[in-house]
Amino acid sequence: xxxxxxxxxxxxxxxxxxxxxxxxxxxxxxxxxxxxxxxxxxxxxxxxxxxxxxxxxxxxxxxxxxxxxxxxxxxxxxxxxxxxxxxxxxxxxxxxxxxxxxxxxxxxxxxxxxxxxxxxxxxxxxxxxxxxxxxxxxxxxxxxxxxxxxxxxxxxxxxxxxxxxxxxxxxxxxxxxxxxxxxxxxxxxxxxxxxxxxxxxxxxxxxxxxxxxxxxxxxxxxxxxxxxxxxxxxxxxxxxxxxxxxxxxxxxxxxxxxxxxxxxxxxxxxxxxxxxxxxxxxxxxxxxxxxxxxxxxxxxxxxxxxxxxxxxxxxxxxxxxxxxxxxxxxxxxxxxxxxxxxxxxxxxxxxxxxx
Length: 355
Ligand SMILES: C[S@@+](CC[C@H](N)C(=O)[O-])C[C@H]1O[C@@H](n2cnc3c(N)ncnc32)[C@H](O)[C@@H]1O
Description:
The structure is a single chain. The chain is α/β, with parallel strands linked by helices. The protein folds into 2 domains: 3-189 and 333-348, Rossmann fold; 195-331, Alpha-Beta Complex (DNA Methylase, Chain A, domain 2). The protein has 11 helices and 9 strands. The protein has helices at residues 22-29, 45-51, 66-73, 107-118, 135-146, 195-199, 224-231, 249-252, 298-304, 322-331, 335-352, and strands at residues 11-16, 33-39, 56-58, 78-83, 122-127, 150-157, 168-175, 210-211, 214-218. The strands form 2 sheets. It has a 7-stranded mixed sheet with strand order 3-2-1-4-5-7-6, sandwiched between helices. A two-stranded antiparallel ribbon has the order 8-9. The two termini are 26 Å apart. 44% of the residues are buried. It binds S-adenosylmethionine. S-adenosylmethionine binds next to helix 1 and strand 2.
């Protein structure tokens, strides 16, 4: 997208913890002019810059000062500071571990510090719903309120905003100019985008194959036993449908009840399950293709995260590191949710201008 295409209401943004640019891309689609992305993972630089007309800064958020962000904004009518700190310390997958020593808890405090140092008009954050129960979140909201922001937050299903995926996320939006609300669902129940809508048109693959026209459309090879297993799984089903000899010993035990959502197949006619950082592995969740006997390809995971089909993740000629690219895709804010957030701020600005 050319910088000239960006307009909406004179909002310029900086995106902390920008990853490969899911949030940035969505904000830009809503017309927000994103001027900077900051992330400490060098693997994010190419996808962030190749798909978004915005510079990437490789740095830890805890090491940067507000001046860097203010310089990137320049003269702007409205300034938005966005930041989606790593969610692993708060995710349900990591419950049971003691995270009190996890330095990433404190990244939200640095986000708050940068809000204080840069005095933006608007702030937004996306994270896992469980963050709402943590003291670090209440403290973050308290700091914003003390800086005269009106803060709203809610848990939304991304499927309500055009994402072909069941993915519940906490969205916080804050403004120094009154209350800003997330726009109403664009694809509520009954109108949700399905797996078929999203990936039905992609080229068929067999397990282990790569599409010659799109290196990202590649899927993992399956062992003979996993190939037999997936052939026995119906769309929407899992290992419980397999013949006894294919079932893993750990699943046979009563405690196997806990593993109902592994080795599953997705179904065509609804949103996909939540894409994790491991969506490319058949045994890692309900990530079997609805009818082909294989796991999802990297491209399919990205499209289910509502990235455009031509979003570039790896430079031409560079090797594709499947685990790394899968992690970056699974960690992203779905583009369509980012777009809904951007449209919400644009509507807020129109209200402020009396338009
Ligand atoms: C949930 S992901 C963000 C996804 C991104 N907003 C998107 O839409 O694609 C969290 C990101 O935080 C980055 N990260 C972790 N610790 C960081 C730090 N100290 N400073 C900057 N970035 C950090 C990770 O590399 C990861 O890309």
